[in-house]
Amino acid sequence: MKVDVLTEAVIAAPCARVAAYAADPANAPAWYVNITSVEWRTPPPVAIGSRIAFVARFLGRRLAYTYEITAYEPGRRMVMRTEQGPFPMETTYTWEQYGEDRDRTRMTLRNRGEPSGFASLGAPVITAAMRRAQRKDLAALSALLEAR
To answer: What gap in Å lies between CA 59 and CA 89, rounded to an integer?
Structure first.
């Protein structure tokens, strides 16, 4: 069973600022509820081909994986993929100005993949947990950026 979770939020901050902050992997532990550490495997900054190692806690388990940036349009879209472990994943961020003023941004966060082996049995549980985590992640990001 495939997992495909799309979450969005409107953040009261300019699109360029939201995109720059969210696209910088060094900021991930500050707004992702499950990510505990990040380490560059290629030199920064973010570009197509960049590789970044993440350590996370999800459903009570420690997960270590390396994402590769496969698409990057600064200020508009970023796509990362990992092929490691029992749950290969693709994460996509999009950003766009929201409303008439330039001080609000609609950000989407989409995670999709296809668990294999034992993990495939838990796909419905993974989907629900991922949806809850993503809502918390975007709420945390909103709070961080709106407080500035």
So the answer is: 16
In this structure, what CATH number is given to the domain that contains residue 110? Answer: 3.30.530.20
| pTM reported for the whole predicted model | 0.92
Q: Is the pLDDT reported for residue 115 higher than 60?
A: yes
Give residues with Cβ within 8 angstroms of 30, minimum separation 6. 140, 144
Q: Within 10 A of 99 (CB to CB), how many other CB atoms are there?
A: 10
Q: Which residue has the tokens 């909103």?
A: 142
What is the structure's pLDDT at 84?
Answer: 74
Q: Is residue 129 within a helix (H) or strand (E), and if so which, with residue range? A: helix 123-146
Question: Could you tell me how far CA 70 lies from the centroid of its own chain?
Answer: 14
116 Cβ contact partners less than 8 Å away, ≥ 6 residues apart:
86, 87, 88
Structure tokens at 26: 């060094």
pLDDT digits (tens, 9 = 90+) for 67-111: 999 999 999 999 999 977 667 899 999 999 998 888 999 999 999
Take residue 131 and report the two structure tokens written for it: 């949806």
**Domain extent for 77:** 3-32+71-146
Residue 119: predicted pLDDT: 54
